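Reminder to self: keep the SMILES exactly as supplied, no canonicalising. Ligand is NAX.
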Amino acid sequence: MARADAFAVQMGTPSLTLMERAGTAVADVVARSPLATRVLVLCGPGNNGGDGFVAARILAQRGFRVRLALLGDRDRLSGDAAAVARQWKWAVDEPAAVDLAACDLIVDALFGAGLARDLDGAARALVERMAAAGRPIVAVDLPSGLDGVTGQVRGAAAPARETVTFFRRKPGHLLEPGRALCGKVRVADIGIPEDAIAAVRPTAFVNGPAAWQHAFPRPAAEGHKYDRGHAVVVSGEAWTSGAARLCARGALRAGAGLVTLACPASVLPLQAASYAAIMTREAPDARALAHLLEDARLHTVALGPGLGAGEETRRRVAAAAPGRRLVLDADALTSFAGEADALAALLAGAECAVITPHAGEFARLFAGAEAVLGAPSKLAAARAAARLVGAVVVLKGPDTVVAAPDGRAMIAENAPPFLATAGAGDVLAGFAAGLLAQGMPAFEAAGAAVWLHGEAAREAGPGLIADDLPEALRAVYGRLFAQLAG
Ligand SMILES: NC(=O)C1=CN([C@@H]2O[C@H](COP(=O)(O)OP(=O)(O)OC[C@H]3O[C@@H](n4cnc5c(N)ncnc54)[C@H](O)[C@@H]3O)[C@@H](O)[C@H]2O)[C@@H](O)CC1
Ligand SMILES: [K+]
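Structure tokens returned for the bound complex:
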């Protein structure tokens, strides 16, 4: 954002104009809040406070009863913030002297993008009083104390009802706990030219069709099922075979031309009887899997769900990796606990790979990898992990991050809370395998799988179980394909 701001200034918009527009956008949001006539604006010592001075002036001019308190010394304001403070003709109060509950709404303009360390002392005390005051809060750029890069709270932050940010959201608006603290996020246009995106060349994106639709497979009219790829899903024993079934069904619904479940002999009849459209082959162990995969047409393999963690699963990963498009989930990842290097060595031989850990599997797999587990944010951790294993990493959660070894990343924002249900991860691995089977590049395939998974859950609605997700995908695909064609 600093580079985007600088670009706008370079292209001829003075930074003071940007600040005037930012403050105006904040005032507009406050003015639309119902029943807010007494507004308290809390300003900090930098440009975030400057935005607050502008908003306060505009609201006062529009007839609101505005009180303004400044954290710090008015004489020490500088630059644009000092300029807009001079245009504020009314009183500037000491925060300590103000009853924060004696207003209808608080504008939090203490700290934004310039937060440089954990809040402590008077700043932290003020943020804590603001949180305790129980008044609706409109945050300028970010709730003060929230780190816009990491989504983490530095010391303290007060939950906002709305957050007004400028030009584009920052990772901290999307990554938890930041997302929850921001409330409703509004992105205001302050006149930063769209060309700034090309100049800044961002590498982190919101996960949505815009991020991957260029690579999304569209079945050709004259197409053949073999053009849409053949995915193999490896099944465990009978008592855990449902996981592979969900994964296989996800792969087929996502569009793989053919899906084969590779199973132990004892599970063959069960799997064969479950879904007519899914084929079955006997492959009880890693050797048999290697033999099955001598057929080069079986170029995509998903394994992990319901396989059991241990040596045999490691051998299966080793058998499947060479030259394949791979999705590894669950037990396939836990089998390499603390040995991400060993996994990386195997994945180096794959055509491409996607790994889909949840937070627990991620912590186990990367135990001892300080660059990963010591990273300052979920985004940074996923990127470091992707670099380490040389694969696309899908770090799951309400704010699922998809990261590529080259640093590109997407953050999901469409997953409903009821998606956290048994077997949902197996379906996600299947969606990824179904897209990989159709030749979609791994980063885009993983992003699309995560987004489709969230949309399918919304389509199915509350009460969903994992079995619903592959079925709900049809309606989601209906809309997506109409959009892609239009
Ligand atoms: N051209 C621009 O850069 C624009 C910036 N805008 C606003 O400017 C903000 C960024 O302004 P700044 O870079 O001045 O940063 P901030 O105003 O967010 O914070 C910087 C100030 O806070 C102090 N500070 C940082 N961490 C602290 C801590 N933990 N405890 C106590 N004091 C701390 C710093 O010493 C500095 O005085 C954005 O969030 C946005 O609100 C908008 O006006 C739009 C245009
Ligand atoms: K703020």
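Points to follow up:
The chain has two domains: 2-202, 209-485.
The chain has a mean pLDDT of 96.
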